[in-house]
Amino acid sequence: MRTPTFPEEVKDESCTVTIYEREYTKPDKEGKPKKYLEYRLAWYEDGKRQFKTSADYLALRSEADEVLKDLKEGRRTTATAGLLTASQRNEYARAVKIVQPTGVALDVAATHFAKAVEILGSDLVVLAAQEYAKRHEKITPRLVSETVDEFLEEKERQKKSARHVQTLDSHLTRFKGSFAATNIASVTASELDLFLDNLTAGSPPKPVSARTRDNYANSIVTLFEWAKVKRYAPGDFDEHTRITRTHNDEDGPIDIYTPAELRALLGKADAKLVPFLTIGAFAGLRSSEIMRLDWSDVRMENGDPCIVVQKGKVKMRGKSRRIVPMSANLKAWLKKHAKASGPVWPFSVPYLYEMLRELTPKAQAALRKSDRNAKLEWKSNALRHSCISYRVAQIKNIPQVALESGNSPQMIDSNYRELVTEPDAQAWFAIAPKGKKK
To answer: Of 384, 386, 366, 389, which Cα lies nearest the Cα of 376?
Structure first.
């Protein structure tokens, strides 16, 4: 581009505008005088001289062409006139042409685009739309009411236990009543938490317990996982996984199992459940600790067999880990299932409790063959409570049991001492797989 000579006249037939250059001096940051250049565009309109000033010559030169075009076509160019420049008018015409096939007004389209950029944090609107379309490909829109009804019907066809289906029916019918007209894939985690937080029972109504709230949450999570399989929600839909859990999985009321009840549970348990049941029953880990446990921390060789608990609550209390000795019968139970590494329970929490709910009536039926009046129920953390109780009776060393279980000696003494007898303890830790003896 040639170097301009100032003042520079820019002409278009009968119209002329002029660009002037001005040099001025201004103190810099250090207070020293520094020379700067400024450019001014000037033209006549309605008998008055108009000006525009800029430090950018190229921008002002482009503006001169716009002003010339407006003057030639008889359009007002001043800012007070409120009219678009020639380039702005061209942009507007192109935008209207692009948006017209959608049937959306230009200002609405601009609002939607600006909001999308705000949400994404950058101009990735097209990419986001492509990803959304990919995720929702072959997704069948389904209302919550329709999804719940179909889900419960399928559970009945699969001949799931009557108690399990009844529990799901009770929880999900209530859930359906609050979200009946909502698409299953549109429910958010905050809406689920609000529903759970507002659950009441009794007369007069009172908020349900934390355990009951989480039982509802488990049923809802099971429903959403099923909906993903049915393609009623995208495969990466995860709102239901962010439900707030409120039940404190610490030691609660001391409910324990008898050796006969545990034998019945293990006798009817699916192979996937055996590590969970036996580690709880013979090592006394909490349910939450078992679900966090990795096989690499189940030490069956190279020294005394033990389980190393080193995550979650133990870590938060400032302890790096605790060592739980492994009984001979526990080692026998785990031998077929142990791996070098990987989660001991590799499935979801809802799936665990679904399997436990199905296990209990089977174990009760087996138990009633020897005791017609036997009544077996799943008791929260009862495997742990049982282990601690039998361990106290077995070794009669409360500080040692406290160390193994991650509790204080005072709690062990007040809650677990003298609940069972030494013969009961011997029977408990003698429970082994078929064909194995302690």
So the answer is: 366
